[in-house]
Design a protein that fits this description.
The protein is rod-shaped. It has six helices and two strands, in the order αββααααα. α2 runs antiparallel to α3. A hairpin with a 4-residue loop joins β1 and β2. The chain is mainly alpha-helical.
């Protein structure tokens, strides 16, 4: 029976502990005011200077399109133009003359280029001179050296590299100047 009383006491002490907690019901009221101030900065890339597309509708014009553009954060510039190809024109004129049966005139047009003039001399067939051909033309060319087409300077790889370095330095200096504006 002691065990029974002991068990009842343990059960009663546990039950009384669970019911002995008090529950407090509280109500709170809060009010808050929020004031914000902000600034928005939109960073966008500058507009681009786009090179114009310069081209010909046919390839029979002996012209080539060249264009370029430079853009800084403040200033943009673009340009384009057509460049005349004189060698292409010379070949077309010569071919047209040859097709019309004017062979001496066709060769005379080509002989305006020093490379052709030299090649004709090396082949033993001198360029025509005011309607004269062969030995007569050779004598006339010797008597009139001022009418011989001027020699063209052949560029070496070093010449081209030096020219490209100068152009690059100029473009770099211009770009730096525009960036500092």
């Amino acid at each position: 029976m002691n065990k029974f009383i002991f068990a009842v006491l343990i059960v009663l002490s546990t039950v009384s502990t669970a019911y002995s907690q008090t529950i407090v019901d509280t109500t709170t009221k809060s009010t808050s005011e929020v004031e914000t101030e902000g600034r928005t900065i939109v960073i966008s890339p500058p507009p681009s200077a786009i090179s114009p597309s310069v081209g010909s509708s046919t390839s029979d014009l002996c012209m080539a399109g060249v264009s370029g553009a430079v853009q800084t954060q403040i200033l943009g510039v673009s340009t384009g133009e057509m460049v005349r190809d004189e060698n292409c024109e010379r070949l077309k004129i010569s071919k047209t003359l040859y097709d019309m049966g004017m062979k001496v005139a066709a060769v005379s047009v080509l002989c305006q280029d020093r490379r052709v003039y030299d090649a004709m001399e090396m082949a033993g067939t001198p360029c025509p001179f005011l309607g004269k051909i062969g030995e007569q033309a050779t004598d006339e060319w010797k008597n009139n050296p001022g009418r011989i087409p001027p020699s063209e300077v052949v560029r070496t790889q070093e010449d081209v590299q030096e020219r490209n370095a100068k152009i690059g330095a100029g473009i770099g200096g211009l770009a730096l100047l525009l960036l500092l504006l």
